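Lab notebook, design round three. We kept the backbone fixed and only want residue identities now. Task for the bench partner: fill in a sequence for the structure below.
Input structure tokens:
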């Protein structure tokens, strides 16, 4: 409390003045902080991928039908064999180009 009163009235102890000088010297010697700017990455736009016979043959019949609905808006007949579904998908893909 007395220290605060002394500072307010302008009467300071020499110890405090030395501590202030030391603190100011440390501040001057400290490294300046450089601002960091972060730029967001550009969004990667993927080109629509054309499916091939080998990629479609690795899928299930349901997956082929769902992909055909998503890409072309057509519904393939799941009662057909997988090979016929793949052929129908590839022909729809050619027509869409």
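Proposed sequence:
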């Amino acid at each position: 409390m007395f220290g605060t009163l002394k500072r307010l009235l302008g009467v300071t102890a020499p110890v405090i003045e030395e501590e202030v000088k030391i603190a100011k010297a440390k501040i001057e010697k400290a490294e300046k902080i450089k601002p960091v700017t972060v730029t967001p990455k550009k969004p990667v736009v993927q080109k629509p991928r054309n499916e091939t016979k080998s990629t479609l043959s690795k899928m299930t019949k349901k997956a082929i039908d769902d992909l055909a609905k998503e890409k072309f808006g057509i519904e393939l007949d799941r009662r057909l064999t997988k090979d016929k579904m793949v052929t129908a998908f590839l022909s729809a893909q050619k027509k869409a180009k």
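Keep this in mind before ordering anything: The CA atoms of residues 12 and 68 lie 85 Å apart.
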